[in-house]
Structure formats: structure tokens, C-alpha cells
Amino acid sequence: MNFTEAVLAELQRLEEGNLTKYETVLQSPQGGTVMVRGKSAVMLASNNYLGLSNHPAVCKAAIDGIRTYGYGLASVRFLTGTQTIHLELEKTISRFLHTEDTILFSSSFAANVAFFQAVTNEKLGCESYKDVLYSDRLNHASIIDGQRLCKPETTDRKIYAHGNMQDLERQLDEDRSKGYRFRLIATDGVFSMEGDLAPLAEIFALAKKYDALVFVDDAHGIGVCGKTGRGTAEEFGLTGAVDVTVGTLGKAVGGAAGGFISGSKALIEYMRQKGRPYIFSNTLPPAIVCGSLAAFHLLVKDTSIVRRLHENTAYFRKEIAALGFRIIPGTHPIVPIMLGEASIAQSMSAELLKAGVYIKGLWYPVVPKGEARLRAQISAALSRKDIDRALEAFNKVGKKMKLL
Questions:
Q1: Distance of CA 199 to the CA centre of its chain
Q2: Predicted pLDDT of residue 364
Q3: Superfamily for 12-43+303-400?
Q4: Which of 60, 94, 317, 334 could cysteine-pair with 195, CB 3.0–4.6 Å?
Q5: Calpha distance 183→176 (Å, rounded)
Q6: What is the Cα–Cα distance from 280 to 276, expressed in whole angstroms?
Q7: Using CA atoms in the order 142, 213, 86, 52, what is the torsion angle rounded to 10 degrees?
Q8: How far is Cα of residue 54 from the mean position of the Cα atoms in its chain?
């Protein structure tokens, strides 16, 4: 079998879960509503939690950024890729998260890949050593892929049951006397398939007890969780306490692209020297940097945006459950609507689009078999009228498909 034949065979095998097959092309900017196939639809499938991806102030800042600083820098940071705005954005993020310093990456995926290999594959003054990573079973693919780059001869990788602190402590306790150089607990702040939050307070207590570092990928938490949107750490009263925070500029904060690591000055300076995706990738373009700065300024200046997101989320969660749909309980804007079978999720997504609601389904292998769902994602950009329109469509389609 040649390469092309092998690829075609694999595509045939993946036909049921073919992601491209279910792509829908938008004909408008991202907002509370979008244009699809010439018709308006309520957007319930976007990471645009704060509605900033098409905010006039963010768009203006991006345009002004191009006019002032150009389209791109054609280089990496240490050559010609650092402008005053890059330093300003890093300082802005640090102030927002109450950390000492921040380093920008092309994406949060790149940030995760950079961190794990840079820390565990380097001697850091130790000629002979071994580290251990404890990772939640449902952590994002970027954490998993980052940890795959850790050399097995220098790093033990362990997985604890999702959100299960008894299992995590059992593993930490078993390893207490093994002489590891670094112990590191890695978790998503918010798990994107479930919409649940990591039990950070309990994780911190265990980290203190067993002398471990805490790493949090807060891609779905920053701008969303906590009273002022400072993330999962703020939700648990731990703002500024996380050893390593990874975040994104591609979701709540502007919705374009880019990621970052935030933490101590020593860690960030080390990542500038050892983070390969940082050293060998082009710098973020001025439009994204300036747009992200505007997004953070809006978030700091107007906390009502976060409050509106929380209010919209609470309302949708209450009303969708009242219709009779089964959802995973929680407070996050990710609201999984459990349907069971992949075919039901696929059909309902298509029917809802016809009824004016843009929402996507998730099924195996993205989620376990028998746990297919629609993942609603609520935004501050949604008006109460938009949400009611969506709920009416859910009610209509649910009855039509005999799900209610």
C-alpha cells in the first residue's frame, strides 16, 4: 500500500467522525448572531465569550496597529520581532494576572509544547535527575502533546482520574520517597468538553503538602471565570498564586490568535532562552498585539462585560434544563447538552441550523462513546432576545426529534 492509498483508507475509516464534513462556512464577522447560507443564526458554538472578537474598539486598535507598526515583522523575537507593543502586552497580561512576567507565543498550544520540554529535558544544574508529571485524564491535547516531548529517561508521566483528588494524592504519596527533582501537577483550568472547573484549591493544598509545582492551562478560564474575569485562579481566591499559567488570546480576549505563559520572572526569562516555539517562530503581528491590548483594556475598564456573560450563562442553563434537556451541571458558559448517540447530535445540529441556531456536536473519539452532545457556548454578545430565540428553536427541534 502506498502513501496515498494508506491516507484514503484512514479517511474512510474516520468517515463517521470526519470533522471537515461538518464544517459550516460563516458569511459574517463573529458576534451574537452570524450569517450562514444567507440567513441569520444565533451563535452558540464560539469561544468568543466576551463578544470582543468584533468589538469596535478591538477592531480599531488592530487597524491602527497595522498603520503604525506594519503588517508583520518577518522574524522571531530576538532578531527583529520585538516592538514596544509586544513588551506592553506582556506587562499588561502580568498586571492582569498578578504575576511577575509573561512571554508571548504564536498560540497557547505552542506555549504548552514549549514549557514541558524546556523544563524537563534540561539539566538545570543537575547532572543526574528525574522529574514527574501528574496530568488530569481530560487535559487538553496541547498539554498531552507537550508532555510527549519529555524524554522518558528524564521524566515519568502519570495520569490521575479526572478531578479526582484522592487518586492524585495516592500517586503523590506513593512517589514521596522516589527522589524526583521536580514534581509538577498539570491541569486545565476549565475542561472544554465538560465545562467543569479543576478543583484548584484542593490541588494547591496537595501541591504544598507534597512540594509540587502547579501548572494551569486557563484557555477557557481567563476572561470568563472569577468576578473580574481573571480566570480559574480568581474563582478559587488564588489570583497570582499559580506557578505556571498558560493562556490564549484566541478565545475570550479578542478571539484572534496567540498565547502566553505567565509566572515568575525567573521562569519567563528561562523560557525566552529555552522555549523552542518562541525562539524559532515568527513573532505575533502588530494587528493581533494591538487588538489584544485593547481587549484587555476593555476587560479591566468595564467589568460589566464579565457580569453580563455570567448572567447570560445562568439564564441559558436554567431555561435549557427547564425545557427537559439533560446538561452537565456547572457555572461555566460551556454548556454540554447530552444526547448520547453521535447520529442524534449530528442531526440535531443540522436541524437547529435550519431553525436559526449555530451549534456544534461532539462525539467519539472527541468524547467517550455513548456521550455525544451538543456543546453550547454562551457569550456576552448575546442579547436576551437572542437566547430566547435559541431556546425556542431547541424546544421546537427537540419535540420534532422526539427528544422532549
A1: 17
A2: 85
A3: Aspartate Aminotransferase, domain 1 (3.90.1150.10)
A4: 334
A5: 10
A6: 6
A7: 60
A8: 19
Give the model's pLDDT for residue 18.
Answer: 59
Residues annotated as catalytic are 192, 220, 251
Contact 93, 117 (CB under 8 A): no
User: What is the rounded distance in angstroms from the CA atom of residue 204 to the CA atom of residue 212?
Assistant: 9
Among candidate residues 270, 281, 333, the one with its CA nearest the CA of residue 122: 270
Per-residue pLDDT, 152: 92
Kindly give the interhelix angle for 384-400 and 342-354, rounded to the nearest 10 degrees.
Answer: 130
**Which residues touch 84 (CB under 8 Å, ≥6 apart)?**
none
DSSP, res 31: S
Domain ranges of the chain: 12-43+303-400, 56-301
Q: What is the pLDDT of residue 127?
A: 76
List the chain residues with pLDDT less than 70: 15-22
Per-residue confidence (pLDDT) for residue 128, from 0 to 100:
79
At 17 the pLDDT is 56
The three grid cell numbers given for residue 86, joined into one nine-digit string: 509586544
H or E element: which one contains 334? strand 334-340
